[in-house]
Specification:
By secondary structure, this protein is mostly beta strands. The chain has four helices and 16 strands. The chain has a five-stranded antiparallel beta sheet with strand order 1-7-14-10-9. A five-stranded antiparallel beta sheet has the order 2-3-4-16-8, with no helix packed on it. The termini are far apart. The relative contact order is 0.26.
């Protein structure tokens, strides 16, 4: 499938609804977080970032990122948004850490790591009958928090992959046994907006979460947040297969994977979203019925893989490490 359009690959398996499912290759892996720690170089923990090459430590909300970026790692070449999560590490029995690589989801060709991104109107089976309002330039949001001590958000889940097509069951915690095809981390964002604020101090209060888990339709929006926006979701395929030898796992038999902020349970999983579609491209997609209507431009896997940015943080994140990068800093 080398060189095949990412969008063509997904269209071969998708019904004729206007939801978007597409791959974004890895743009960068480094300690930057322009939403939670704007301007901090470095941020508290490592993130894996996909999307447009306008990404930097500040991401001025008054600037339209789609006008600054010149390429994107995503299959839709008009999508200069940025999507990012924490990074998964393996913690060996001897206490050292190794970054877990990512691999492409089903039907996405030879994509370089990255994530699968979804924008849904209602579900995979129906466009629904609601007006879906696309995000505006400057919009950003987060879901989840590293400090979370429970798994009550049904949109933040893990799947122990038996193969690349496995989707269930989902768990709120990391899988406790070796997974034959790795671990998929899932992030579903809220889809109800207050219609006024492009952001809020905690990056969440301008949104309201009616997500019910999986890709089922979100419940109705409340009067406080009446505007239905696309249901955004991430799937990240973490290739834990090289670390499945239980002789290397903790002596007590507990699972060995941790997020880059030292979360060994998984409740603190979180995702960041910064809108950057060009012009009215996303609104046209949400208004359309066929998946690829209204001239939404695409690019090949090879083109997506070529887009990248230089790291602004000079540190080892890939070798065998005695501590996680930045763990001496306050989160």
């Amino acid at each position: 499938m080398k060189g095949l359009s990412l969008t063509l690959a997904l269209a071969l398996a998708a019904p004729s609804q206007a939801y978007l499912r597409f791959g974004c290759a890895t743009l960068s892996v480094q300690r930057l977080d322009p939403l939670v720690e704007p301007g901090a170089i470095p941020s508290a923990h490592v993130h894996q970032i996909v999307g447009g090459n306008g990404f930097n430590a500040t991401m001025d909300p008054n600037e339209d990122v789609s006008k600054r970026a010149t390429c994107t790692t995503c299959s839709f070449s008009e999508d200069f948004s940025n999507y990012w999560t924490a990074v998964l590490y393996f913690k060996a029995r001897n206490g050292t850490y190794k970054r877990v690589p990512q691999y492409p989801n089903a039907l996405l060709g030879n994509l370089k790591g990255g994530m699968t991104i979804y924008y849904l109107q209602e579900s995979f089976n129906s466009n629904g009958n609601q007006k879906i309002t696309a995000f505006k330039p400057g919009f950003r949001m987060t879901v989840g928090t590293p400090q979370s001590k429970d798994g009550t958000n049904p949109g933040l889940r893990y799947t122990c992959l038996q193969d690349v097509m496995t989707r269930f069951p989902e768990t709120a915690e990391f899988p406790k046994q070796p997974c034959p095809a790795g671990i998929m981390a899932i992030h579903h964002f809220p889809a109800c907006w207050d219609g006024k604020n492009l952001d809020s101090p905690n990056h969440q209060d301008h949104m309201y979460n009616t997500n019910q888990g999986g890709f089922v339709p979100a419940a109705a929006c409340p009067a406080s947040h009446p505007v239905r926006v696309p249901q955004v979701a991430y799937e990240t395929m973490w290739d834990t297969r090289p670390f499945n030898n239980k002789a290397d796992w903790p002596a007590d038999g507990s699972q060995p994977f941790v997020w880059s902020y030292e979360d060994s349970v998984g409740y603190g999983t979180h995702g960041d979203y910064l809108f950057g579609w060009k012009g009215d491209a996303l609104q046209r997609a949400m208004d359309s019925k066929p998946l690829l209507s209204n001239g939404i431009a695409t690019q090949t896997v090879d083109q997506a893989n070529k887009c990248s940015i230089q790291s602004t943080v000079n540190e080892d994140i890939d070798g065998w490490l005695t501590s996680l990068p930045g763990r001496s800093m306050d989160m």
